[in-house]
Amino acid sequence: MMSRKHNHFLFIAAGIFLAITSVAVYAQSDDTDKSLQVAIEQTRRQLTAEKKRIEQELQLQETELKEAEIRQEQLVNEIVDRKFAIANKEVQLEKRRSEREKLRQQQDSFKQQSAEIRIIITDSCQKLSDLLDTLPASESRQEQSKLLFDIKSSLEKTEPLQPDMNPLIKLLASLLQESCTSAVFSQNIRDAQGYEKQVQLLRIGQVLFAYRSPSGQIAIAASASGDEKGFRWNEDIPKWARKEIRFAIKKAVSKSRVYFLPVDVTQQLTTEHNYKSGFWTKLATGGPVMIPLAIVALLASMLIIKKFKFLSEQGDDTVEVAERILAACHAGNFQKAENIAIQNPSVISRTLLSCLSRRLEDKTVMEDAIAESILHELPKIERFLPSIGILAGVAPLLGLLGTVTGMISTFDAIA
C-alpha cells in the first residue's frame, strides 16, 4: 500500500514538473499570459482530479483493511473454536480408546469363558453319550439322541463362540424326568439270545428295565460283564420277580398297588455267575507248565528255608559272643577266650579261635590264619545260593511260557 502512495506522489511531481516546464516554454516563446493561465488551470484540474482519485483509493484501501481485520478476527475466532473442538475430540478419542480397551478385555474374557463352557459342554456330551449307550431303550431315547446330536453339531461350528445351551438343557431335563417316572411301551430290542424282536418294555426310573416277549419270556437289564460298557438282558431271574414284572407290565404300572420288583440300585450286578474254584482247580487251569513251575517253586522254597535256618543258627548271639571273647582277650585271659569260642561255635567264633591258637606267633601268621578260616567258612555261607539264583531265573521264564501258551489257546478259541 505504501508503494502505491509513492507512485501517486511521483505522478503528481511529474505533472507539476511538466506544468512548470510548459510555463517556462510559454514564457520563453513570448506567448500571451492567457496560454500560461490555461495551462496552469489545466494542471490544477488534473491535480484536483488526481487528489480525488487518491482519496478514493485510500478510502477503498481503508475499507479493505477493515474487512481484512474483521476477516482476520473471524479466522482467529475460528482457529480458537477449532482448537477447542480438537481438544474436545481428543478427550472423546481417549475416552473411546479406554472404552475400546475395556471392550477388548471383555471380549477376551468372553472368549475364555466361552472356551471353558465349550470344554464343559464337550465333557458333558461325552458323559451323556456314555450314559445313553449304557442305558437300555426308553420311550424318549430317540429324542434324547437327536438332542445330543444337535449339541455335538453346534460344538463343531466355529460361530457362534458360545454353543447353544438349549439342547443340553432339554436333554438334561428329559433325563431327569425319565429318572423319576415309570413307563410301559413297545420297543424293538435284541433279547438275551441276540435275536431282534418287539417286546413290551417296563422302565422304572433308570434303575430297572425289564421286558416281556410275545412268547411270555421275562428278562431284566443287568450291567455288562468285565470292563465292557452297556448292559445285557438276563432271563435267569427268580419266579416271583417274573410274576411281578409280568403283572406290572399287564397293569401298566398302576399306582393303586405296591409292586415288588428286582431293582438293582447299585447298577453293578452282571449277568455272569461267580464260580468258586479251589487251589487244585486253579493249578489245573494253568496247563502243563504249572507242573515244572510248581517243582521249581518247591525246590526254591526248600533251599530258602534251609539257608534261612543255617543263617539263623550262625547268627544267634554272635555279637554277644564276639564281645565276650574280645573282653577276655583285653583282660589277658586267653584260655577263657578260647573256651568261650569252643562252647559257642559260629563263623565268627571259629575265626577268632584260629587267631587265638596262633597268638604266640607273628602277626602275619595270625592274619593268614584268619584268612584261611574265612576261606574255609565261606563255602558254607554261600552254599545253595547259586541254586537259588538259577531257580529264581527259571521261574519267571516258566511263568512267561505259561502266559504265552495261554494266549495261544485263547486266540485259538476266538478263531
Keywords:
about 425 residues; alpha+beta; five-stranded antiparallel β-sheet; 5 strands; about 70% helix
Description of the structure:
Residues 271-277 have low confidence and may be disordered. Helix content is 69%, strand content 8%. 9% of the residues are buried. The protein is built from 12 helices and 5 strands. The chain has helices spanning 2-28, 33-134, 141-156, 166-179, 239-250, 279-285, 290-315, 318-330, 334-343, 347-356, 363-381, 385-414, and strands at 182-190, 196-204, 208-212, 218-223, 231-234. A 5-stranded antiparallel beta sheet has the order 1-2-3-4-5, with helices on one face. The two termini are 120 Å apart. With 415 residues, it is α+β, with helices and mostly antiparallel strands. Helix 1 packs antiparallel against helix 2 (33-134), helix 8 (318-330) packs antiparallel against helix 9 and helix 10 (347-356) runs antiparallel to helix 11 (363-381).
